[in-house]
Write a structure and sequence with these properties.
Elements (H helix, E strand, L loop, with lengths): L2 E6 L8 H16 L4 E6 L10 H9 L8 H18 L3 E7 L7 H10 L6 E4 L2 E4 L5 E7 L17 H11 L3 E7 L8 H18 L3
Parallel strand pairs: 1-2, 1-3, 3-6, 6-7
Antiparallel strand pairs: 4-5
Length: 209
């Protein structure tokens, strides 16, 4: 039985374009995968603990800096719990609205929590290497102003490039993007949005069935 982790990083609820696209994906996904487990993770619900000093210190022990004592182990156990929920999924649906050229802070917080040595990536003489295998991701990218080819005055992309890099770091290379970019400045946005919804249904049917 497959497990899909639906990671929500927009706080806009029903007004969220990325959320609407994700829901269209889920409609088709449920038809194609009626037995799949869908685990919804709303990053705005406060369930992800702060990645504070003890957690950072615990992480550094895996690089030979310090000792994982009882206090640090307790902090690390919370990180492991969040990370195992992430790594136990077979497939991912991630909504990523663009914030200030990048990603929402709650998503960066989550990424910093689940990107851990020995859990999702390893580190050796040749650098980083991924630990996750045989996983797929559908990523919904939206933006209000930026889109490829616009002048720098309308923004730069640290959204798609960062997410793709991070997914590769942990071993998720089968990535299927859905984009709805520049929707506040694109005069044809009203016609483009249904195409994004259609694309979401197609990805769910063709790539995740």
């Amino acid at each position: 039985m497959k497990k899909l982790l639906h990671i929500i990083s927009s706080p806009r609820g029903e007004k969220s374009k990325s959320g609407a696209i994700a829901q269209e994906f889920l409609k088709q996904y449920k038809l194609s995968n009626p037995d799949a487990i869908i685990d919804e993770l709303n990053l705005w619900d406060g369930s992800i603990p702060p990645f504070d000093g003890n957690k950072a210190a615990a992480k550094m022990t895996f690089f030979g800096d310090g000792t994982l004592n009882e206090e640090l182990q307790s902090s690390w156990d919370k990180v492991v719990e969040v990370t195992e929920r992430f790594s136990s999924a077979d497939e991912y649906l991630i909504t990523v609205p663009m914030w200030n050229g990048g990603i929402p802070w709650v998503l960066k917080h989550y990424i910093d929590t689940v990107s851990q040595p020995g859990l999702t990536f390893g580190f050796g003489a040749d650098g980083y290497f991924p630990l996750l295998k045989d996983k797929k991701a559908c990523v919904v990218f939206t933006s209000g102003v930026f889109s490829p080819g616009v002048p720098a005055s309308l923004g730069l992309d640290f959204q798609v490039s960062y997410i793709n890099w991070w997914l590769g770091l942990v071993g998720i290379t089968d990535i299927h993007p859905i984009t709805f970019l520049g929707n506040l400045v694109n005069p044809d946005a009203e016609n483009e949005f249904p195409k994004a919804l259609e694309s979401a249904a197609t990805v769910a049917k063709d790539f995740f069935s």
